[in-house]
Amino acid sequence: MISTNKAARGRPQTLDREKLLGIAVSSYWTDGTESVSINDICRRAGISKPGLYREFQNEDGLKSAALEAYREKHLVPMYTILGKNQSFLETLEEIVEFFNRKHRYQSRQECPEGCLHADMNHSRTVFGPSTLETIDSLNVKIEMELKSWVDHRKAAGEIRETMETASAVTYLFAQFSGALNLRKKGVGSEEVEKFLRLGFSVFLKSEGGECEINNE
Description:
The chain has a domain at about 75-200: Tetracycline Repressor, domain 2, CATH 1.10.357. The longest helix has 27 residues, at about 130-155. It is an all-alpha fold. Mean pLDDT is about 85; it is low at about 1-10, about 105-110 and about 205-210. Helix 8 (about 165-185) runs antiparallel to helix 9. The protein has nine helices and no strands.
């Protein structure tokens, strides 16, 4: 007897979104967003271009999603440090450890040097509206976290009241960017630590005017 059942049509292969975003983040972070094409991402992830477009609509959507994935894994831990109810110096110790965190990762591909968000911020003219919106939302989030931390440390009497919060936030943002750039240039962890401690030392002064932060 001949079966009258028709063969089921093949369904599009299920896309592993988390895996794909991991590859996109690593690719953009290591090689630069302007140097990596959609074809490169598809080849490295072993997926078709139509499959990628079904998930992210276009390259702008992919880059925006990749930056969000980067935020969750690599920036949220910094927000957590700043949000802890701990002293200025305790926060500094964790920040230093955070910026010299390479030992937590097994390979350079998993955590390249530098900062993907900072790199995309500096090259913002080449991105589409979705990516730009994500870049700007991360800027706002970081500034809010820094402002909250500065205000809390002022209230605790650890940062001088005469220091304007807005200026302090701009300064800290520059310090973090500077530390990441040093790592990207191959500067060792000890020098990066000294850079951060020296940078934070402007906030704390003893009665004699000497910096209280050990920068040896």
